[in-house]
């Protein structure tokens, strides 16, 4: 299910027959031309509609055990935090709502590190140690994605904003938009 690093799947609704009327022939031709099942074609349509203006980025850890996809702009707004852990890890990340993130594989290969308030969930690959995404303290209902862990070809530009994580409470209180970045 989207937004679930543990890989928990939501119950799918039962099969529904939809009357496409005059569009049924066009729908069947589209599926055939692109070699898509009904579910794959519906997913494509929903993704295009729900994520208008966004691109699907894929990425993962170094060894490939962890893979994910994330819907975000091609022009990324990345935070460069100077808190103790981000400084040590050189953690730079952009924030997305949980609904725009999907773990494709590797839930069983992730481990989590927490400290201090334990709100931030620093997940990383057990094999190679790379943190390609995590749950930030500022946005516990979203994900912080490491842009350097994305596959090539979907990022156009990166704008980096420094954030004073050494004075985290003050920085978050004064920042006008960071808390809303995990809202769909």
TrEMBL record:
GO terms for molecular function: carbon-sulfur lyase activity; metal ion binding. The keyword Repeat does not apply. Keywords: Metal-binding, Zinc. It holds the Pfam family GFA. PROSITE patterns: CENP_V_GFA. Residues 57-169 form the CENP-V/GFA domain. It comes from the Eukaryota. PANTHER family: CENP-V_GFA DOMAIN-CONTAINING PROTEIN, CENTROMERE PROTEIN V. Belongs to the Gfa family. This is CENPV protein. It comes from Calcarius ornatus (Chestnut-collared longspur).
């Amino acid at each position: 299910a989207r937004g679930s690093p543990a890989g928990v799947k939501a119950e799918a609704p039962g099969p529904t027959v939809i009357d496409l009327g005059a569009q049924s022939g066009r729908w069947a031709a589209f599926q055939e031309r692109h070699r898509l099942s009904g579910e794959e074609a519906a997913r494509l349509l929903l993704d295009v509609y729900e994520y208008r203006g966004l691109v699907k980025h894929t990425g993962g850890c170094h060894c490939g055990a962890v893979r994910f996809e994330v819907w975000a702009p091609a022009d990324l707004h990345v935070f460069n935090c100077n808190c103790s852990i981000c400084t040590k890890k050189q953690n730079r990340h952009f924030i997305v709502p949980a609904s725009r993130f999907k773990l494709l594989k590797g839930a069983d290969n992730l481990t989590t590190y927490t400290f201090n308030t334990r709100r931030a969930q620093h997940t990383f690959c057990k094999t190679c140690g790379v943190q390609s995404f995590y749950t930030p303290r500022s946005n516990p209902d979203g994900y912080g994605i490491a842009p350097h862990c994305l596959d090539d070809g979907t990022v156009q530009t990166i704008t980096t904003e420094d954030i004073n994580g050494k004075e985290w409470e003050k920085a978050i209180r004064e920042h006008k938009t960071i808390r809303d970045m995990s809202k769909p």
